[in-house]
Amino acid sequence: MESAAGGSRTGRNLPAAIAVGAGLGAVVIASLYFVKVLFLAVVIAAVGIGVVELVRSFETRDIKVPMVPVLAGMAAMIGGAYWGGPAWLVGVFAMTTLVLMIWRMFQGTEGYVRDIAATILVTVYPSMLAGFVALLLSDPLHGADRVVVFIATTVASDVGGYFAGISFGKHKMSPVISPKKTWEGFAGSALACMAVGGWLVAWLLEDAVWKGVLIGAVVVVFATLGDLVESVIKRDLGVKDMGSVLPGHGGLMDRLDSLVAALIPVWVLLTLLV
User: Fold this and answer.
1) In angstroms, rounded to a whole number, what is the distance separating the alpha carbons of residues 234 and 254?
2) How many CB atoms lie within 10 A of CB 6?
3) N or C: which end of the chain has fewer CB within 10 A?
4) Model-level pTM?
5) Distance between CA 210 and CA 256 in Å, rounded?
């Protein structure tokens, strides 16, 4: 059921959400297949906005995360992963963590452990995890196709879960963490993920359908867990959404949560199987 303002019973403004999603999809596809470096810039910009949202959310609880060095480390990790591979991603992450610990040290001892814990959390989630999309893209033959498989399969989790949830959702998955999530929605996510994964692996990567179905099955688990992790963070910080930059969606982190959580398992499976 929709309200007069165009919102659904889940609280989303569905027309706005669809328009924003389509626009983001067009930007991603265009940059992926025409200028890969531009796609990296899109990723850095999107993750950067997500980092800013997280940092500002932490500030509501007087938790201080140094925004500029965290953003610099994030950009260096993504660039290092694309041009240097996994070793560079890990190396830049380690160096970024050390620099951030030293950076905070000169601001006093009060709250040091609390602030550093939050800072390293932001350096891992979403910053370091986002570097794995650059590893997918760096494949010389099918880099862009691998990224499309990853993004489309993960987005299918959100779309399938949304429509199955509003149509059939009755049994709550986790009432304390995320009251709107249902097992019926999870089933819709699983079916959508496996269908899209099987189709795209067969079409774009010219490999066995079962491999795509397996990837989809793994994606739905990690995408759902990633969404729940962000819900826990928001509840702990007392915020409804991380931001409001995307009409009908909330903040960038509200859309990146499932993507960054699914990145590593998708990269591993595509590397091993396809």
Assistant:
1) 10
2) 13
3) N
4) 0.86
5) 26
For residue range 168-203, list pLDDT tens digits in order: 888 898 888 888 889 999 999 999 999 999 999 999
Q: Are 257 and 232 in contact (CB under 8 A)?
A: no
Beta bridge partners of 55: none
The one-letter amino acid code at 234 reads K
| Distance from C-alpha of 110 to C-alpha of 87, rounded to nearest angstrom | 35
Distance CA 79, CA 89 (A): 8
Mapped onto helix, strand or coil, the DSSP state of residue 64 is coil
Establish how many alpha carbons lie within 13 A of residue 175's alpha carbon, considering only the half-sphere containing its beta carbon: 3
The amino acid at residue 101 is: M
Q: What secondary structure letter does DSSP report for 126?
A: I
Helix (H), strand (E), coil (C) string for 223-254: HHHHHHHHHHHHHHHCCCCCCCCECCCECCHH
Place of tokens 């990296």: 40
Q: How many residues does the chain have?
A: 274
- Model confidence band, residue 271 (pLDDT cutoffs 50, 70, 90): very high
How far, CA to CA in Å, does 253 sit from each of 116, 189, 198, 227? 20, 19, 27, 10
- pLDDT value, residue 19: 67
Q: Looking at the chain, which runs of residues are DSSP E strands?
A: 172-174, 178-182
Residues near 105 by beta carbon (within 8 Å), at least 6 away in sequence: 112
Q: What pLDDT, in 10s, does the model give residues 21-41?
A: 677 777 788 888 888 899 999
